[in-house]
């Protein structure tokens, strides 16, 4: 093997490169290793917090669903009550109309009674007998 200056320089550079790379890779800086361990610890803490938040979220969701079901039941009751109230108002309106109509008829009847009390119908003989027959049928 013929080694000239150029080849020796390349071999020396390759050797130095391998040496420095090895020192960097295997030796490293202790600060970096400490930082990595701290980050791994932080990662585990964050995972624990995440898991606890997932559990809390699922608990809250189930509680919300229970409350939502309760709200839905009460809303159904409210809707039913509102419907019944509306129907009752309609019934009351109809009853008021009937009361007004009956009151008007009563007033008319009272006026007729007063008129007949002041001015009785006078019938004699055959007209009286026929009138009584008609009313007794």
Description:
- This protein is mainly α.
- It has one domain (5-136).
- The protein has helices at residues 5-27, 30-118, 125-136.
- The mean pLDDT is 90.
Task: Describe what is shown at a glance.
The chain has 137 residues and is mainly α. It has helices at 5-27, 30-118, 125-136.
Any key phrases for this structure?
137 residues; rod-shaped; mainly alpha; single chain
Morphology call: rod-shaped
List segments where confidence is low: pLDDT < 50 over at least 5 consecutive residues.
none
Largest sheet: none
Give the overall pLDDT as a whole number.
90
Return the domain count.
1
SSE arrangement:
Elements: H1 5-27, H2 30-118, H3 125-136
